[in-house]
Amino acid sequence: MISAEKLTLYELAAADRAVRFSPHCWKVRMALAHKGLEAETIPWRFTEKEQIAFSGSRTVPVLVHDQHPRGDRATGDPAISSEVISDSWRIALYLEERFPDRPPLFGGAGSIPLSEFINSWADTALLPSLARIILVDIYKHIHERDREYFRTTREKAFGKSLEDVVADRDAHLAALKQVLSPVRRALRNRDFICGATPAYADYCVFGMFMWVRCISGFDPLEANDPVSTWRDRTLDAFGGLARSAAVAD
Amino acid sequence: MISAEKLTLYELAAADRAVRFSPHCWKVRMALAHKGLEAETIPWRFTEKEQIAFSGSRTVPVLVHDQHPRGDRATGDPAISSEVISDSWRIALYLEERFPDRPPLFGGAGSIPLSEFINSWADTALLPSLARIILVDIYKHIHERDREYFRTTREKAFGKSLEDVVADRDAHLAALKQVLSPVRRALRNRDFICGATPAYADYCVFGMFMWVRCISGFDPLEANDPVSTWRDRTLDAFGGLARSAAVAD
Prior knowledge:
Two copies of one chain form a homodimer. Chain A contains nine helices and four strands. Helices cover about 45% and strands about 10% of the residues of chain A.
């Protein structure tokens, strides 16, 4: 990226603003690293709807891509174009389209629909399965003023109290193990879901594990699970970007 | 394919040998049609292990690809090469590699790992979910001499009787609806899982619905489900190949 461009990413933060735990924001963080792009990250909390109202979205991630007229944006020139993209999937497509000379997030156009399926699987199967394990941990670590919002929206979604959702951890761990079967199988023949190196479909799944890692002290994977080995490899990618991320106490 | 080549596909058959109901064999049938290839299909039943012993596999699909020295195999020349491939995934890779000038099953090398993930998802999430609905229907329609084998192996896998597995159909239908979420989401933006036209990942999922269609009178999808609309489109592909397939009475 030439210095006339600037990327800004609004990320969900815990009570400790250094802790960025949204699975969807982690998809974007990994995608930016994959593309070799730097972004200023701005902590955002669930109830700060007004701070991102400019995006038309009520949730993060929100990415702002400013382009300045001269090479040195320190001159204070206003941006001549400013694009605002919300939703991690749309952000990934945007990055792929706008930075085509950087390493590809998708292995060609044919891979985009297939990656979207895997993203949808992560969101609709893996996310709820992990939520049943960490929902109360999230509640404990988010900012005090986010708690009522979080409890109300999640208890409505699950149809029971947060505490009741996570009550039977052993059953949820057994269900998770089954949910992860396609990942485990896919990793029999290769190091990453996308092949010899990770790409966007890996980050879609990995984001879910960063969500757990950043907000909960509990590890839902057994050490000998191939999914755990894959997670280790992805934690080490890009100089250990994800491994060095702040986690909640 | 030049006339010097011959493909033979061993397929699982019901009591009525015209009924070919294996989800994995249907993946191959669709892949062959996609490539514009014809194959002689040979009905096979669960307990006929000896008939396919030459393949080293105990299950179908098994594909045999014979090449004859001259253009006209009717001369009775023995095949100069005969390749035997079992397992639907390996067959798909084989067809892609051996018939590269035909329409691609995968949209480039980057799509192969992603398609394998979707195949694994179909096998480990969708298949068991549908099995909980149709297991007794399968038992009723397979050949009498296959029944004991089927009951024994499936009851061991599920840890209960076939009748107990399918007992709570309403709960299984609700679970299926949730399992299908990634397919439904993927179809929001396109006609097929793979994009504007179907490819191998579509057939991996579609094979599961052909399994149900051929062996059970029950349709687990609601008519207004986008998955049902996609299934209709795929039933119509290749001149209605799948729609015209024999189904059990």
